[in-house]
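Observation: inputs received (chain + phosphoenolpyruvate).
Thought: call the complex predictor directly.
Action: predict_structure
Action Input:
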Amino acid sequence: MIVVMQPGCRAEHVDHIVTLIREAGLKEHVSVGTDRTIVGVVGDKRGLDLSALESAPLVDRLVPILSPYKLASREVQTERSQVPLGVPLAVCLEACPAIPKAKVGGQRLAVIAGPCSVESETQLMTTAHAVARAGAVGLRGGAFKPRTSPYHFQGLGVEALKLLAKARSQTGLVVVTEVLSAEQVELVAEYADVLQIGTRNMHNFKLLEAVGRTKRTVLLKRGWCASLDEFLLAAEYILSEGNANVILCERGIRTHETHVRNTLPLATVPAVQRLSHLPIIVDPSQGTGHAYLVPAMAKAAVAAGADGLLIEVHPDPEHALTDGAQSITCDAFATLMEELAAVGAAVGRTM
Ligand code: PEP
Ligand code: MN
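Observation:
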């Protein structure tokens, strides 16, 4: 961080800043220019009282140089992380041979697909077998649904978790499902390979800490009003609890636009890859709200360098209990996977 002094500051003002920096156990680097004096702060500034520095006499402003997140940043780890989609527990190895192999962040694109919500055994198994045949590596499906209205379908709960585990044992797909509260983490982690943190919970720090204490991979969705820095700081919460397996997911943000449910900013993908070593996938379903937009945005996401996709697929979208309008059919998903293979090949990715 750099402390920029106001024009006309004198040696005593600079000395005061140097004293504050040294009191925090850090070192300073003073540079006196013709117009301005700047003081560089050297060392880990977590113990530094920034408001004292900012309000000191003749300080103009503080300019951060390094990112506010450490563990998530490329400053700490330059190589891109490859995050396993599941922990290779002995029990999983037997039931689900796909788990130890599946990783996000490598050359292979990770496509996770399935219904918005688990509605019934028939609906889930039909979808799971269809997406597995088409080449998906993961099965998504909400058991506990965060709904904007309290009167809408809230998910089948534990019954859905059991169905997801059954679908995993039949198909070998990795199970991805959302956890809504810190109290629920233990239960959901018993059944799921990947814990999804939804957009509404990206700022729920107690939940982030709770999933950070598990050994399960976490799929962290961007808050619909969150800046990129806030998104990466949320990831930092999980990493700082000791869980290194975090996958980021861009799912669209709220804007003034009304022809889509959310605006899907694909520039997030290369921007995150520049700032962070964590893999990033894209959810074109929540990202657009319309099934007809999903294939184009899925392909665009892969072209932009996304490490994978999260796609809502339903055998009968017209009768879906949640998010039918943005769910594509099993046939449309199979076609999309073929198209994605071609786009992926053009940017050096395999399926
Ligand atoms: C979902 O994936 O179905 C979902 C609710 O996502 P989000 O949290 O991004 O709205
Ligand atoms: Mn949904």
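Thought: report the result.
Final Answer: The chain has 13 helices and 14 strands. The chain has a mean pLDDT of 93.
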